[in-house]
């Protein structure tokens, strides 16, 4: 079982439009409503891969009730933490060329009692977990050190923990030595405080995060591929994608692919790449099933192209 923790979940509405024109009335071609939040997406991807997932998340108001219903309909076990505020609603606009525009609401503020109940729910659900995946931004009320506390408690209970967050929350959590951190290129650049222009720059940044406490770094470089840096070595991988339909949740699907494949080594990196590539070929935040994967399109090597210039340099 993979336990996911999403402190700031959402109800996500995704609209596909031909083109986004500011100041005009735009008619959507399709509309999807999905349970959202990075950890929620990991749960959905794990379930789509045929594994058991349990989602811990604070839920409140009508949007929260709908998120719970949608997850239940997808066969995902929900361990809800009732809160007084309403779960946030986010909007994603996907243009015909794959360009994604997102509007993310800030979310409710959690009281001290709700924060403690969230931690206690994680503790109650963690004994059966192969991995605990803590993902996304922190809602108002939670200190930047909150993820560090979760990592410390998880390790005390013998669990492995994967962390996908950014900014100060990531830096604070590193001191607790999470088993895996999964930054994208922008988050990696922000963490080390310098721009990343090449794959080699990303490798050095990942190594720096490991010196600060991360045991493994799985770094997404967007269209350029992914890096895996751990005690055993460094690997670089790419996945061919002929057409991008939606990037929503692709990174979360990638983390799920990494974890369901064991969470270490080049085989897990290949699984992460296959899941991420499959996700971008699907509409909205639909998570890929095994039939959607194309392992033949994935390439992983220990011969890292350190001089390769990133298509989208991170600063």
CATH class: Alpha Beta
Strands across the major sheet, in which order?
5-4-1-8-9-10
Number of domains: 1
Task: Profile the largest sheet.
Answer: 6 strands, parallel
Q: Extract low-pLDDT stretches.
A: none
In what range is the share of β-strand residues?
25-35%
CATH superfamily: Ribokinase
Total beta strands: 16
Helix content: 25-40%
Tally of helical runs:
9
Computed Rg = 18 Å
Class by alpha and beta content: alpha/beta
Order of helices and strands: EEEHEHEEEHEHEHEHEHEEEHHEE
CATH topology: UDP-N-acetylmuramoyl-L-alanine:D-glutamate ligase
Give your account of this protein's structure:
With 315 residues, the protein is α/β, with parallel strands linked by helices. The chain has one domain: UDP-N-acetylmuramoyl-L-alanine:D-glutamate ligase (3-Layer(aba) Sandwich), CATH 3.40.1190.20. Helix content is 34%, strand content 27%. The protein is built from nine helices and 16 strands. The protein has a six-stranded parallel beta sheet, with helices on both faces. Strands 3-2-6-7 form a four-stranded mixed beta sheet. It has a four-stranded antiparallel beta sheet with strand order 12-13-14-15, sandwiched between helices. Helix 1 crosses helix 8, helix 4 packs parallel to helix 5 and helix 6 crosses helix 7. The relative contact order is 0.15.
């Amino acid at each position: 079982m993979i336990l996911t923790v999403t402190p700031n979940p959402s109800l996500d509405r995704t609209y596909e439009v031909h083109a986004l024109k500011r100041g005009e009335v735009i008619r959507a071609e399709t509309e999807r409503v999905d349970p959202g939040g990075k950890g929620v997406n990991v749960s959905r991807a794990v379930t789509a891969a045929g594994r058991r997932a349990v989602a811990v998340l604070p839920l409140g108001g009508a949007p929260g009730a709908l998120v719970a219903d949608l997850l239940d309909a997808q066969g995902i076990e929900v361990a809800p933490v009732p809160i007084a505020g309403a779960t946030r609603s986010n909007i994603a606009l996907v243009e015909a060329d794959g360009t994604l525009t997102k509007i993310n609401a800030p979310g409710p503020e959690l009281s001290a009692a709700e924060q403690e109940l969230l931690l206690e729910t994680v503790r109650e659900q963690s004994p059966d977990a192969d991995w605990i995946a803590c993902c996304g931004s922190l809602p108002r009320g939670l200190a930047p050190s909150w993820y560090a506390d979760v990592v410390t408690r998880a390790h005390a209970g013998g669990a492995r923990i994967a962390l996908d967050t950014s900014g100060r929350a990531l830096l604070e959590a590193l001191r607790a030595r999470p088993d895996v951190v999964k930054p994208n290129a922008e988050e990696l650049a922000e963490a080390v405080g310098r721009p990343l222009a090449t794959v080699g720059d990303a490798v050095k940044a990942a190594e720096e995060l490991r010196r600060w406490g991360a045991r493994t770094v799985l770094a997404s470089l967007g269209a350029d591929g992914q890096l895996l840096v751990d005690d055993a070595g460094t690997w670089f991988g790419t996945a061919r994608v002929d057409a991008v339909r939606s990037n929503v949740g692709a990174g979360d699907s990638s983390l799920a692919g990494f974890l369901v494949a064991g969470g270490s080594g080049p085989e897990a990196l290949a699984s992460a790449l296959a899941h991420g590539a499959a996700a971008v070929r699907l509409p909205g935040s639909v998570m890929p099933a095994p039939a959607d994967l194309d392992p033949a399109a994935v390439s992983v090597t220990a011969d890292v192209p350190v001089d390769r210039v990133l298509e989208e340099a991170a600063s």
